[in-house]
Specification:
The chain has 812 residues and is an alpha+beta fold. The chain has ten helices and 48 strands.
């Protein structure tokens, strides 16, 4: 975007802004608005200049980081930023969402890039259509918004693999987010390409880019400052000359710290405490919150997150009043269309809706949070600023219930098989996303257990065409029982890959079967099954185009096709409550994943992707629908849980908790500091189960809360979260918020296990037990207290830790 100011005798009359493709001409009257003749003459002159191929000279701006403030043209700039992911918004709606940001009171937007969105195959870059990052930045500038760029290579953001391309995982030895050359070299190549596309849009060149982030929350992953230095240098060599910054939650700020990167801190509450932690490592410079959370994202099988409106508004005003900059994550969440939604760790797949309970809703609507945010922002505008009115929302339509009459069974529409002696991961078959069918033969014999080392993520096991059971990564259920077989049988394992984990070491997430696949009969040694036929099912346009439909209903996993007629297009929300689990397309565009367990029960369908007349819908259901019907609703359903429909319900252990006769491995007291606190045993202790006992809380209340819990192995290093599972918790809050014990393993300091308080209020002691998966030597734990200011409850004071071979009297 080039922006020029036309002046007469030094007085700016209006400003012209237009893109490289001359898509926009923005006329903003600055003075003499009523002098229509002069304005029109100048406008015509400007248009003639554009048509002649000329460009108005770029407006000259400077941006710097001072000792106390950000400085724009030498004047204080309080960065009021909001995160908007263009990849989660239909391109047709980009301008609308940016206008909404401006109307809410923002002066800046934060733009994430997802590496895998732009480099689907090594060296094949895409910056067009929905991936046109430069155009989004130009649009932001046209709306009077500055831009903070977060290019990765790792992004997180509840996006598939945190933005890391699947093809990296073909290398089993890949060490992501390190100086490992097999990771760093493609990362450098990608950043060089980012510089080619976006470096021309820096403020130093007349564009809107103020700052560029190096990596993302690296301190929560590692401590290698040299690695960050290599990425920093790669960005410099790619042409970026604006300030470079790093972000981390308060407890991780010192990890990998570099003085040549400006530091910002991410948090959702307690700004005073978080900025105090920032000042410890960065004594000077403006204070900025890099991710300010108004709520949180959703995962399948857990309630919709709504956030604490009062706390959000108080903390927002605190930052505005005290000249602290911030970026609201998310200002507008949007939708993880396609198969781009990621997964929380140890493995909790994210919903396709990324509404985030953000101020701007998934469909771009004004919400109560938007209105109240705008009111607070309006009290702290900089001199000369005013808030425009929000643009009108796009029209919404309803669609009468309609039936999908044609079906294409998955097993009748298989591609050419890949033959392999052993079953391997998707990546070995050049498959990045979707599903795969693994077909083999199981010998005749009595009842036996079919076991795989691991399966990512869900595996429907069929014997001679009959469904036996489902393997489920969430529950680490990688074995099923096969019935007696009078003769050899055809074994089919239909594997669905959900999004790759987007946080922590677990982001190196290879999909499919991790062999060996073994048959274990009673009293006999395990026998590996070999000789496989593998059918890749990428769920892409090519596969959809090859499907052969038939009339009538289908049994088992199948694609369904139908359509609906509209006279006027508009946004709608497709009701998928009568379906099971799968993926949905409208007019060839993938709206994302659905799952009847909730919390999301509708799929956002943008009106820009519909057309007057007939619109085609294709649905892949892996579990069979109750009724193959859909309807378009005027409102989304984001918070309807139906756990009873889950094919493998989460089961906590049952029985009576006991520690009689068992001495604690350690006991003591935690502080209230919001940082990882370590409790080391006097000597290693061997066992399979580790119990954290909360004896009491710092504020004397009956609650216990834990943000993160790590178990230290024999070498004093944290065990991988993928090898752990929550075995039992004596109490969990599920009404007022998501206080699930599983949150202690998700790597997110903003979430927590919290004992029940909206109903019963059981008192101390409280117990949380982790299953290590096998007996091993452990040397201690690390505990992160819940976030929030000093007034919040649940922070553990006195504690005890037990380690046992048996499960404390509880039964799985």
């Amino acid at each position: 975007m080039t922006i020029g100011t036309l002046e007469i005798a030094g007085t700016p009359y209006f400003r012209l802004a237009f893109g490289g493709r001359m898509r926009y001409i923005l006329c903003m009257f600055l003075k003499h608005e009523n002098d229509r003749g002069t304005v029109m003459a100048l406008l015509v002159a400007g248009l003639l200049l554009v048509l002649a191929g000329g460009r108005v000279a770029a407006a000259s701006h400077t941006f710097a980081i001072g000792e106390t403030d950000f400085l724009l043209d030498g004047q204080r700039l309080q960065v009021r930023c909001g995160e908007v992911h263009f990849a989660r918004v239909p391109r047709e709606y980009w301008q609308h969402r940016l206008k909404m940001c401006k109307a809410m009171g923002l002066n800046t937007v934060c733009v994430y890039l997802f590496w895998n969105f732009h480099e689907a195959r090594p060296g094949e870059f895409n910056w067009s259509g929905p991936a046109d990052a430069a155009e989004f930045c130009r649009m932001a500038q046209a709306e009077g918004l500055w831009v903070l760029l977060r290019p990765g290579p790792y992004s997180c953001a509840e996006w598939e693999g945190g933005g890391l391309p699947w093809w990296l995982y073909k290398n089993d030895q890949m060490k992501i987010r390190t100086s490992d050359a097999s990771f760093l070299e493609p990362a450098r190549r990608y950043l060089k390409e980012v510089g080619r596309v976006l470096a021309p849009l820096q403020i130093t060149k007349g564009g809107p880019l103020l700052m560029v982030q190096v990596e993302n929350e690296y301190g929560w992953f590692g401590k290698d400052a040299a690695y960050l230095g290599q990425l920093r240098q790669a960005l410099v060599e790619s042409g970026f000359e604006v300030p470079l910054f790093a972000c981390n939650p308060p407890s991780a700020l010192p990890n990998g710290f570099r003085a040549d990167l400006f530091q910002v801190v991410n948090f959702g509450s307690d700004p005073a405490g978080a900025f105090k932690a920032l000042r410890k490592i960065q004594p000077k410079g403006p204070l900025m919150n890099g991710e300010f959370y108004p709520a949180w994202f959703d995962t399948w099988g857990q309630p919709h997150h709504k956030g604490d409106m009062g706390r959000y508004l108080r903390d927002l005003e605190y930052m505005l009043k005290n000249n602290m900059s911030f970026s609201i994550y998310m200002a507008h969440g949007g939708t993880s269309f396609g198969l781009w939604s990621g997964a929380d760790r140890p493995f909790r797949p994210d919903t396709s809706s990324y509404d985030y309970e953000a101020p701007i809703s998934e469909a771009g609507w004004v919400t109560d949070k938007f209105t109240r945010t705008r009111e607070v922002m309006g009290r702290y505008l900089l001199p000369g600023e005013s808030l425009p009115e929000p643009p009108p929302a796009y029209p919404v339509i309803t669609v009468n219930r309609f039936r999908l009459e044609s079906s294409a069974p998955v097993f009748d529409n298989l591609p050419v098989a890949i033959k392999d002696e052993r079953a391997r991961s998707f990546e070995k078959y050049d498959l990045g996303q979707g599903c795969a069918l693994y077909r083999g033969t199981v010998p005749a014999g009595g009842p036996a257990s079919l076991k795989v080392k691991e399966l990512h993520d869900f595996g429907w096991v069929y014997l001679d065409g009959h469904l036996v059971d489902v393997m489920d990564r969430r529950r680490q259920k990688f074995a099923v029982q096969l019935p007696q077989r009078a003769k050899p049988g055809q074994l089919d394992i239909l594997v669905e890959a959900m999004g790759r984990i987007n946080f922590g070491q677990e982001a190196f997430d290879q999909k499919g079967i991790h062999g060996p696949v073994e048959l274990i009969a009673s009293g006999s040694p395990a026998v590996e099954l070999t000789g496989w036929q593998v059918y890749p099912l990428p769920l892409d346009a090519a596969q959809l185009g090859r499907l052969k439909y038939q009339g009538g209903s289908a049994k088992g996993p199948a694609f369904w096709r139908g359509g609906f007629l509209v006279t006027t297009v508009g946004d709608t929300f497709l009701d998928v409550r009568s379906w099971g689990k799968g993926v949905l397309w409208v007019n060839g565009r993938c709206l994302g994943r659905f799952w009847n367990i909730g919390p999301t029960q509708t799929m956002y369908c943008p009106g820009a992707w519909l057309k007057p007349g007939q619109n085609e819908v294709v649905v892949l259901d892996l579990t069979e629908p109750a009724q193959p019907e859909l309807a378009g609703l005027a409102q989304p359903i984001l918070d309807q849980m139906r756990r009873e429909l889950d094919f493998s319900n989460r089961a906590r252990a049952q029985g009576q908790f006991k520690t009689e006769g068992l001495a604690p491995a350690i006991g003591g007291a935690f502080t209230t500091e919001i940082k990882m606190q370590e409790a080391r045993f006097a000597q290693p202790v061997k066992g399979r189960y580790v119990c954290l006992e909360s004896v009491n809380a710092h504020n004397g209340q009956p609650y216990a809360a834990v943000a993160e819990l790590e178990i230290l192995d024999a070498n004093g290093q944290p065990l991988a979260n993928t090898s752990l599972r929550v075995f039992w918790a004596d109490s969990e809050e599920s009404g007022a918020e998501d206080g699930s014990a599983d949150n202690v393993l998700d790597g997110q300091p903003a979430t927590m296990w919290h004992t029940e308080y909206s109903g019963a209020k059981p008192g101390h002691p409280h117990h949380l037990i982790l299953d290590l998966g096998k007996s091993q030597s452990v040397t201690g734990i690390r505990y992160l207290p819940r976030s929030g200011d000093a007034k919040v409850g649940g922070r553990i004071k006195e504690y005890r830790v037990y380690v046992a071979e048996q499960s404390f009297g509880l039964n799985p």
